Sequence to fold (358 residues):
Amino acid sequence: MPISRSLVGAGLALVAALCAAPASAAPAPQAPASHAAPTPAQHAPSQDAFSFAVIGDVPYGTAAGAAFPGQIRQMNEDDLRFVAHVGDIKDGSSECSDAYFAGIRSALDTFEHPLVYTPGDNEWVDCHRTNNGAYDPLERLATVREVFFPVPGKTLGATMPVRSQAALGLPENVTFGHDRVAFSVVNVQGSNNALQPWAGRGLSEPTTAQLAEVEHRTAAVVAQLRTTFAEATQRHDRAVVILTQADMFDPAQLAGAQADPAAVSGSREIVAALVAETNRFDGPVYLINGDSHAYAVNAPLAAGSPWLAVYGAAPADDLRRVTVDGAANATSYLRFTVAPNAARTDEVLTWEAVPFAS
Fold:
């Protein structure tokens, strides 16, 4: 349900106040059984370098909500092809209300660049928590899709055509390409990819509906990743960029995952697909995520990585992980620059942090 620009001022006030309102149930989307991924939208090649920005896990709390409109204006003034928000549009201890979603949607509508957004766990997976309103997470996911993805294949902010998995009930999963770089945006979640029980609703085991959602979404993500890489190879693309919320290689969770690999079982199929496709692709692969809130750059599946044993995976040396700052650390945005199409370099992407003025 698009939010009228006449509500922008009121919406930004809602963001700053983190207001709450009761949610109304939204019907879950019906998805066909097939998990075939669509062909990515391609954009006319250019010989020039271009840039895009990535943010995530923002805004968190009243002060961050008040600063968010100014941060959007600052990104609007930058020369960017698009902006990506890798999820968590609220903190993990505030209510997942319809009013908050409407306020954030109004704020996101002020982006003058195309905005690619993928949901985070704070806006649906963790909404079962008592301080979040003890919502049914699947109802909140349906509402997120209704509010933020009302027109499949169209970005928020300025319009940029993308291909989505709307036919599978996942309009948030999109693909597109620029200057022989393939982008794949996928809904992968923290909280063990949404497998943790909904304790705030008095449950100690995942529900049947919860397990079905995870199975369906995971299969769709794997299908989109496979298609993204296959088409990138066919087009002789220079690089593949994957954007998602979950930090599947969070160092704070490593010890727990080593002790009990089931703690990351919800991501295992996705990691296996990343390994297989990265090793088949003749070029660098960049995994850009939020979730853990602290900027990091590494090769999480390189030979010798402890995550190989956790996931039972073979090495994938060409996979580069970039985690964006979030929450209290969200004092800047990451500005990625894509090398010119004709450039002779293995570093297709470079990046720098651009501090927010407010």
